[in-house]
């Protein structure tokens, strides 16, 4: 956690002073009515949220420090229900949808709210948060919080937020995903960087998600260069799969100036030479990114990474990026590029991670075309199918074929929604092409292809007696 910038801290304190001097706070203190507290929220929470957004954009590592400043009665509990949600969602989960480590920051905010003189109005906004947060936490963690609370009424209320239905992983997962959607438009992710391999294993998922979010949303990441580089320079962390993943993420997506190139380039190449598992770990990273599809691996990412490779050291990674370079420079529709891909694919075992990665790289191009193709440009689909068939023949891989089929079906669905006149030339042309193509590629059986073009009849309403 980084300390909060003094300018941000001063801004927050001015908001606190304004809250304490406001007539609306006086009104609420006199009446203790929820409506008056809501009016106080409407008056001051937008200012807190605006500053929170600025810090999240420019100084994400300072978010926890900002949240801790709000833990005084001068803010009258304003914005804390939202912050409570941020801390719940920030925690890293395991496969059972349980926190991988105790969430101390979540605990501190919850305890502060429970001890707040405004608890009675705040609890109306935090019930679902606590239900979800408790479901993700261990029983011991919850018991320790309850043990430290002295107010029996508050303790009883908290105990009732521990729902037995969330002991079932399916219910717990569904509740978490529903809750997560409520915060979709907020930028609240932050992280801290490890100094030991044990810490790296625990914090890896959170760091990965944090960096991916920043990359995907094209946020201001200037303040991350130094701490990330410091982490990647740490000899105690090197050699692990988690380290390789974070190294790959940073080198693929962050533009490096000469100073960072001089630091990180040698680290990358020493890992290639000295770590016997590096190629395996790195291809696992590539395949994971392709599966996620966001942030997308594209020509820019490949260019950044390839520029750092010591080409005198010939290994699987260099060969992979030389193949990608041919694809990007010549174009994946180019016969010479196809020949390079074919040679590369034949030089590796068919189901190797190397070959899977090159297939996924081609699929990126196919996906970009098919997902951005206008319905009126279906003739481009007809023409490009010849290229896609060439790659189908080069790879001879069923998974690749099925991925092409899925993209075709999505586009076909859009076409059939637009061209509804079954006697029209557009419809007939699309039907003829699809029937021939799906047979040729063995995407579907003939009877299933016919089903694609059948009009689904609506059931007639049952006549009332």
Description:
The structure is a single chain. The protein is mainly α and 465 residues long. It folds into three domains: 6-181, no CATH class; 191-313, no CATH class; 349-454, no CATH class. 68% of the residues lie in helices and 0% in strands. The chain has 24 helices and no strands. It has helices at residues 6-21, 23-31, 34-58, 63-69, 80-90, 104-115, 119-122, 127-136, 139-148, 152-159, 169-181, 197-216, 225-233, 241-253, 258-274, 278-292, 299-306, 316-330, 335-347, 353-372, 378-395, 398-418, 425-440, 446-452. Helix 12 (197-216) runs parallel beside helix 14 (241-253). The chain is globular and about 75 Å long. It starts with 5 loop residues before the first helix and ends in a 13-residue tail after the last helix. The mean pLDDT is 95.
pLDDT averaged residue by residue: 95
The number of helical runs is: 24
Say what oligomer this is: single chain
Shape: globular
Which percent band covers the strand fraction? under 5%
What order do the SSEs take from the amino end to the carboxyl end, as H and E? HHHHHHHHHHHHHHHHHHHHHHHH
Q: Sheet with the most strands?
A: none
Structural class: mainly alpha
Count of the domains:
3
* Computed CA radius of gyration, to the nearest angstrom: 28 Å
Query: What is the strand tally?
Result: 0
Distance from N terminus to C terminus (CA atoms, Å) equals: 71 Å
Low-confidence stretches: none
Helix fraction by DSSP (H/I, runs of at least 4): 55-70%
């Amino acid at each position: 956690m980084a300390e909060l910038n003094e300018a941000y801290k001063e801004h927050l304190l001015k908001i606190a002073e304004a809250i304490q001097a406001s007539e609306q706070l006086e009104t609420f203190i006199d009446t203790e009515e929820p409506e008056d507290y809501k009016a106080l929220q409407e008056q001051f929470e937008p200012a807190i949220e605006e500053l929170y957004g600025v810090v999240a954009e420019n100084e994400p590592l300072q978010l926890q420090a900002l949240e801790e400043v709000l833990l005084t009665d001068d803010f009258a509990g304003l914005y804390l229900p939202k912050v409570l949600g941020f801390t719940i969602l920030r925690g890293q989960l395991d496969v059972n949808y349980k926190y991988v480590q105790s969430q101390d920051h979540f605990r501190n905010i919850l305890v502060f709210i429970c001890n707040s003189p405004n608890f009675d109005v705040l609890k109306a906004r935090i019930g679902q948060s606590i239900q979800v947060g408790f479901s993700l936490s261990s029983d011991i963690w919850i018991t320790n919080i309850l043990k430290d609370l002295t107010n029996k009424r508050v303790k009883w209320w908290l105990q009732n937020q521990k729902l037995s239905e969330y002991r079932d992983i399916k219910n717990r997962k569904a509740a978490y995903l529903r809750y997560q959607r409520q915060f979709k438009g907020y930028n609240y992710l932050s992280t801290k960087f490890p100094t030991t391999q044990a810490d790296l294993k625990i914090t890896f998922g959170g760091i990965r998600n944090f960096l991916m979010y920043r990359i995907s949303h094209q946020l201001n990441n200037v303040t991350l260069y130094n701490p990330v580089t410091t982490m990647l320079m740490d000899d105690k962390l090197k050699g692990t799969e988690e380290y390789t993943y974070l190294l790959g993420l940073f080198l693929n997506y962050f533009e490096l100036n000469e100073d960072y190139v001089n630091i990180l380039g040698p680290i990358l190449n020493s890992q290639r030479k000295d770590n016997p598992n590096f190629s395996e770990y790195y291809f696992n990273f590539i395949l994971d990114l392709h599966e996620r599809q966001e942030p997308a691996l594209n020509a820019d990412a490949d260019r950044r990474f390839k520029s750092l490779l010591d080409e005198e050291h010939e290994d699987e990674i260099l060969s992979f990026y030389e193949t990608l370079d041919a694809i990007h420079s010549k174009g994946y529709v180019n016969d010479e590029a196809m020949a390079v891909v074919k040679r590369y694919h034949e030089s590796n075992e068919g189901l190797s991670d190397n070959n899977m990665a090159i297939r996924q790289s081609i699929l990126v191009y196919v996906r970009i075309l098919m997902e951005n193709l206008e319905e009126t440009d279906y003739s481009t689909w007809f023409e490009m199918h010849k290229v896609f068939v060439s790659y189908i023949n080069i790879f001879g891989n069923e998974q690749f074929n099925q991925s092409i089929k899925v993209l075709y079906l999505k586009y076909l669905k859009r076409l059939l929604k637009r061209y509804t006149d079954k006697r029209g030339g557009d419809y007939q042309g699309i039907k003829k092409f699809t029937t021939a193509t799906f047979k040729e590629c063995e995407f579907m059986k003939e009877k299933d292809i016919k089903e694609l073009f059948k009009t689904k009849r609506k059931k007639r309403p049952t006549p009332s007696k």
